């Protein structure tokens, strides 16, 4: 399996679905089928949904799923650090890692832990990128599980990314939380009852 193709395809699929992204659906499908056949089935639900759904509806669903619900936040360090002071240091370290690899993210308007950017880094530097994705494996798995619970076609895309990493994916949220051996950070600045790291203790109803 060509993981660079999987990471590039997933980066596009998890970005805001503007005309350029939606117009690349056929290209994404062909590239994944040729370079990573096992991953093709995971991308298919989203690509098929894009094909049969008006662009305005796809965009509305994207915003509702990723921007309006913390349960599906695509910012990886948010799942591990929440809105704490520590997260600032984490984001600065990510920027340093990108810069040292030669990847420029200035002008993107996104934080460096935004999953599509992390995936672009993984495509650019597969070894370091895979290590970074493994570092945030609990975040990825929690996003995957939340999307699957919602019945979102985006769930398969995140699952395809998880499948590139060593070890089995956890079967449920409890197992995913157990992957984060260190647990939630001690600092609690900014945490509230809806913080995703508290989901096992305070279940949130499906949207």
UniProtKB/TrEMBL annotation:
Q: Out of the domains of life, which is the source?
A: Bacteria
* Broadest EC class assigned to this enzyme: oxidoreductase
* Molecular-function GO term, any one: oxidoreductase activity
Pfam families attached here?
A: Nitrate_red_del
Provide the residue span(s) of the region labelled Disordered: 170-207
Q: Give GO terms for biological process.
A: chaperone-mediated protein complex assembly; nitrate assimilation
Name the Enzyme Commission number(s) assigned to this protein: 1.7.99.4
Keywords noted in UniProt:
Nitrate assimilation, Oxidoreductase
Q: Is Repeat tagged as a keyword?
A: no
The family database entries (NCBIfam families) matched by this protein are listed as: narJ
Q: What protein name does the entry list?
A: Nitrate reductase-like protein NarX
Please name the source species: Microbacterium trichothecenolyticum
Annotated gene:
narX_2
């Amino acid at each position: 399996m060509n993981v660079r193709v999987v990471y590039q395809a997933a980066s596009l699929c998890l970005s805001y679905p503007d005309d350029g992204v939606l117009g690349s659906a056929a290209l994404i499908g062909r590239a994944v089928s040729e370079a990573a056949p096992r991953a093709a089935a995971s991308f298919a639900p989203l690509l098929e949904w894009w094909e049969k759904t008006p662009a305005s509806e796809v965009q509305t669903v994207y915003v509702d799923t990723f921007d309006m619900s913390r349960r599906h936040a695509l910012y990886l360090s948010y799942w591990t650090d929440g809105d704490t002071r520590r997260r600032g240091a984490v984001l600065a370290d990510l920027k340093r890692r990108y810069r040292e690899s030669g990847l420029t993210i200035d002008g993107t308007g996104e934080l460096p832990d935004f999953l599509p950017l992390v995936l672009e880094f993984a495509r650019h530097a597969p070894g370091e990128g895979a290590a970074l994705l493994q570092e945030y494996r609990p975040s990825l798995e929690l996003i995957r599980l939340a999307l699957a619970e919602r019945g979102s076609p985006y769930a398969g895309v995140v699952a395809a990314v998880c499948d590139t990493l060593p070890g089995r994916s956890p079967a449920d949220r409890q197992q995913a939380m157990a992957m984060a051996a260190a647990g939630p950070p001690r600092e609690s600045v900014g945490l509230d009852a809806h913080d995703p790291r508290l989901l096992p203790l305070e279940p949130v109803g499906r949207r």
